[in-house]
Amino acid sequence: MAILELHDVTSGYGEVQILWGVSISLQKGSMTSLVGANGAGKTTLLRTIMGLNKAWSGQILFEGKDIHRLAPHTRAARGLVLVPEGRQLFTHMTVEENLLMGASPKRARADINRNLELVYDMFPRLKDRRNQKAGTMSGGEQQMLAVARGIMASPKVLMIDELSLGLAPFLVLQLFESLKKLRETGITVLLVEQNVQMALAVTDYAYVLAEGKIEIEGPSKVVASNPEVKKAYLGL
Amino acid sequence: MMDALIRSLIDGLLLGFVYGIAAMGLTLIWGVMNVINLSHGSLIALGMFSVYYLFVGLGIHPYIALVLTAVLGLIFGIIIYFIAVHRVINAPELSTLLATYSVNMMILGIGTAIFTTTPRNIPLDLGSIQFGDTVITMTRLIAAIISVGVAVGLFLFLKYTRPGRYIRAVTDNRDAAEIVGVPSAQVLALTFGLGTLLAAVSGGLIATFFPFTILSGETYELKSFVIGVLGGLGNPVGSLFGGLILGLIEGLVPMAMPTTWTPVLEFVLFVLILLVAPNGLFGGEE
Q1: What pLDDT shows up at residue B140?
Q2: CATH assignment of B2-276?
Q3: How far apart are CA B243 and CA B263, in angstroms?
Q4: What is the ipTM of this complex?
């Protein structure tokens, strides 16, 4: 069953159109990757799904209901959660305050203690630093915090923009391991990744976005062996 | 001579706490939503009239009237936000400046028509207490204590409650607040309401010891700007200290020169601070 579906979505900034009719579909409980070159429109697509950018046309269905007119906070309240590019943490607030902010939606408040335990278990580093201001942490720790803040919202669909950007390889591995664990809890994940090889290795299904349109889609393994993908994105 | 000096000092300091919370209202709105609230002064004046009419008209004790005034201020501020500020909140700062200025003109216009500009006075005399040779007016002492209480209350609210955390989050990063599920427009409305509450309460307190008209707010608005710059705009704690400095000036100037020099000195200080330490003596929001 599809939990999130986009039909022919167009969007952009001001006069500049970035998305030219994107249709994707996420199966409930699946892990999907969205890959593509810089400037292909990946971040714009996630921002449009979240409502930070308006969809110019098309439909965005979340659990079967059209949400494209809802404010971002209402979408978040329904269980659609974004871990944004550039982390977008509350830098003047402490680590724990950031995590509590993540649990703002009503449906997440009952789970606060369980989720805190979960993320501290997943990222012990955050527990050590819970009283530190988020803005004073290293890039890797901030990325952990951004993902952890997303988990605190008890998401139904968790969208992560550039999980590995600027991180040391061992950290990237650790984060991907955490994602696999998350998936066992039934969360649907949409992963935007520059590290195409890694993304295709951990996800079930993949979309390749090029110039604002879906160019290739299919099970991740099939996409990984697509000659065009190999040449353009995997450097093979 | 020495007694008079100490008395002026104490009077000034007590007044400074009240100025502090007036400035806190201005600086909270600026710090959270980047809006320079030019209706601040007329909201202070409305606070004065609110306490006056609740007391003189309905016989409610001024300090209970103050609590009602705080509630009315909060509600009125939220209404102003949705009517006048919300639609221009993402526009350049000039638009919000003009929007709040028109609110100011409306309040002053309607206020002048209804209340005229005859000075009012709240007939409240609680006497004074004596410490050694110095005499402290009770209304001023109580106003200072209430002001400190309000300031501490605001601090605890911002630090430890969920809405307080939301306000800090929206200040920090409005987009991020939206994506974690915070209704940011409502949070901004609440902030404007709190700023108005602070203005109204400070006005109500001032009215317990100074005469006033609907136009009196302007003086206190200008003081709030000086204090805001002294303490660092967007820094509520700095506002309290800035208020004390201004209160001191106000207490001491009359000892040495005519009172009319007070605003001159205050604005010389204002310009100096802008030149030397534009983030304020106690640091701004960034």
Answers
A1: 93
A2: 1.10.3470
A3: 14
A4: 0.87
